[in-house]
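Support reply, case 0932

Customer input (verbatim):
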Amino acid sequence: MTKEKKEKKSYSVRTAQQFNRWRSLFQFLVCKIFYMIRFKLVYRLEVHGLENVPNNNEYIVCPNHLSTLDPPLMVSVFPRSVAFMAKKELFDIRFLRWWIDWLGAFSVNRESLAPSTIKTVKNIKNSNWVLGIFPQGTRGVPGTITGVSKGFAGLAKITKCAVLPVGIIGTNEVKRIPFSGKIIVNIGKPIPYNDDLDLMLEQWANAIQELTGFKYIATEEPPVETGIEE
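Our regenerated output:
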């Protein structure tokens, strides 16, 4: 195995100890201070439903996805540090790799749930962080919820974590002039994990429609492959 392959692999497998106070501090400075200033000053951020966030870390943050602002927005809003999945291609870019690594992201193959993904997700649960997943996988078109994968429901089942639906509105509109934008974050009630992945997806989709006003458009997808035996 080459040095480059080893380096890439290290970004997909994370121990609980790697989600430590130094990464938490980096997230806090970058997201809860610098990004939050932008969200408040430019986008007039409104957050509703914080009372729905569980006191423990046995939940997965599952928002709809509109913009590259969405990950730092979620970190800014939630009381715990959030470790987001990031497509493995992003770790091929040197500076971006360093940046998202320190922000707590880890590399995943979006085609399937590999053993390394499962291990890292379980390790996150053993830390003080929570996992963050965009069920859409990639940025969607405002007004619709499309391209949703059942992978998030599979991880909830494996880790016995609830799914926390979060509706994001307004991050797709790039604004720079103070008070010219508007971002609204609506946090729904936790959805308990279930052996029925289709049911969990349906419950998440219904919640996101209520939280955003967007329309969910179902798409066919292959069965979720976890890559390991439960």
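We compared this against your earlier run and they match. Two observations from our side: Confidence is low (pLDDT under 50) at residues 1-9, 222-230. Residues 44 and 176 are 12 Å apart (CA to CA). Please reopen the case if you see a mismatch on your end.
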